[in-house]
Amino acid sequence: MGAIGRRSVLLGAGLLPLLRISGAAAQAPGPFSLPPLGYAFEANEPHIDAQTMMIHHDRHHAAYVANLNAALKDYPQVAAMPLEAMLGKLAELPEPIRAAVRNNGGGHANHTMFWGVMGGKGGAPSGSLAEAITRDFGGLEALQGAFNKAGLGQFGSGWVFVTVAKDGKLGLVARPNQDTPLQDGARVLLGNDVWEHAYYLKYQNRRADYLAAWWNVLDWTRIAARFEAAKAGTLAI
Predict the structure, then answer these.
(1) How far apart are alpha carbons 116 and 36 in whole angstroms?
(2) What is the pTM of this model?
(3) How far is CA 122 from the centre of its chain?
(4) Any residues with CB less than 8 A from the CB of 35 and at least 6 apart, and which?
(5) For residues 101 and 87, is the Cβ–Cβ distance under 8 A?
(6) Do 34 and 23 touch, CB atoms closer than 8 A?
(7) Strands (E), the chain
(8) Which among 43, 66, 67, 109 could disulfide-bond with 104, CB atoms 3.0 to 4.6 Å apart, if both were Cys?
(9) By C-alpha distance, which of 54, 39, 15 is closest to 217?
(10) Are 160 and 151 in contact (CB under 8 A)?
(11) 3-state secondary structure of 228
(12) What is the pLDDT of residue 29?
């Protein structure tokens, strides 16, 4: 094997762990930090590839955190607010940082939720969450159909979310860019990122295939815990 071949093998074997460490550490100082993924980059294979997970978490999400901290540097009173409160009061924030908080704070909140509902093996929910899905959507299959349609219909970059109210009622919304239901005082049960960086390496322009495959990596135990926390009023982001 030539030098270039040996180098490629070494990079393939060692680059992802190194990038995981570097992405988690290279953050601008401030009140917010990049949360650990909580599982290996390859945990969502074959539905979401490890390289996409690494780039998405260690670069894209890290950039939102760094930009948010930078925007808040001269606004200590805002920086002391919980992220969900900050996003819920965008109109009251100082005008010079409002757009930065909306975009980067929303990106941080959305991605933190996103990693938290994945890393599982799909399947179906049970218990009170399954009952709520049947009540409000007509069952998991109907929810998946409506959710995927909303994600496919989101023009350009954005997200599709299932929201949950304190009474347990579920809703479905799509939002552009890094906008989040937190801006409206709602809480997110689960959501999928339909920015191209979330799927393009594996699926290219086949967003519909990505949306369909994504259900196979959900962790319904974690999502059920979010559901109960939302009803108890303790779910933050």
Answers:
(1) 10
(2) 0.88
(3) 16
(4) 112, 115
(5) yes
(6) yes
(7) 158-164, 170-176, 187-193
(8) 67
(9) 39
(10) yes
(11) helix
(12) 79
